[in-house]
């Protein structure tokens, strides 16, 4: 009798626990995964380098990811842009050209252009360059010439400030928009000059020898 009562009690407890248990279906697991995915992520700085050539604007980079990245602070669009920073200038003496590199200012920019002075003359202005451009080539520079080169940024409010260019007395500021540029002579010109000097020295030596023997003949010096 006692054994039957204990068996009935055990069956009743098992039924009660099964009815209270919560069975997890595959849909429940998917909902948990969705909750983990939709957890808000922390914003990170954008992959933006103001010195990189063909750099996509930072506002466009913010539209790529699910969470907008952080852009560097810029001045207002209704203000003139700050001057760019002139970077490395590579000189190609054989072709009489230079490859100019610069960094964008912390200001909204629509386009750039380059200014070039020679011997305090009228500045030569290049065509407009796209706002993503950070590198440009200048051709037609004279061998041995001295120039002042500046990078100018422009937007709807105006253009960046350019210092007065005095080619002869130019004081090159650090990290500014301008720099002094001295073109070396072309390598072929140096070769021709060396050949000319060598030829002149050879002719001068021959003339000195002829003059020496002529003097010996006039003075009647005995020949050895």
Characterization of this structure:
The protein is an alpha+beta fold and 224 residues long. The protein has a domain at 85-163 and 173-187: Immunoglobulin-like (Sandwich). The chain has helices spanning 2-20, 26-37, 58-61, 187-219, and strands at residues 85-92, 97-103, 111-118, 124-125, 129-130, 135-138, 146-155, 158-159, 178-182. Strand 3 (111-118) and strand 4 form a beta hairpin. 12% of the residues are buried. Keywords: Membrane, Signal, Transmembrane, Transmembrane helix. The chain crosses the membrane at residues 190-214. It holds the Pfam family fn3. It comes from Cricetulus griseus.
Keywords for this entry:
three-stranded antiparallel beta sheet, elongated, 4 helices, transmembrane helix, alpha+beta, membrane, single chain, Ig-like_fold, 30% helix, 224 residues, Immunoglobulin-like, six-stranded antiparallel beta sheet, 9 strands, LRRN4 C-terminal like, FN3_sf
């Amino acid at each position: 009798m006692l054994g039957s009562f204990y068996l009935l009690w055990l069956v009743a407890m098992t039924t009660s626990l099964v009815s209270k248990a919560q069975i997890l279906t595959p849909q429940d697991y998917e909902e948990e995964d969705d909750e983990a995915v939709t957890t808000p992520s922390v914003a990170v700085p954008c992959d933006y380098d103001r010195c990189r050539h063909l750099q996509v604007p930072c506002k466009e980079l913010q539209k790529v990811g699910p969470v907008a990245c952080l852009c560097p602070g810029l001045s207002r669009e209704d203000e003139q842009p700050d001057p760019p920073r002139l970077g490395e200038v590579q000189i190609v003496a054989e072709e009489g050209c230079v490859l100019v590199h610069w960094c964008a200012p912390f200001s909204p920019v629509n386009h750039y252009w380059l200014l070039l002075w020679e011997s305090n003359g009228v500045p030569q202005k290049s065509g407009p360059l796209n706002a993503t451009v950070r590198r440009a080539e200048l051709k037609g520079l004279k061998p041995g010439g001295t120039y002042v080169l500046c990078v100018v940024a422009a937007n709807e409010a105006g253009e960046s400030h350019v210092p007065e260019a005095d080619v002869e007395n130019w004081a090159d500021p650090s990290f500014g928009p301008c720099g002094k540029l001295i073109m070396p002579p072309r390598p072929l010109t140096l070769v021709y000059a060396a050949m000319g000097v060598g030829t002149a020295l050879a002719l001068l030596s021959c003339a000195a020898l002829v003059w020496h023997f002529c003097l010996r003949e006039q003075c009647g010096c005995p020949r050895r």
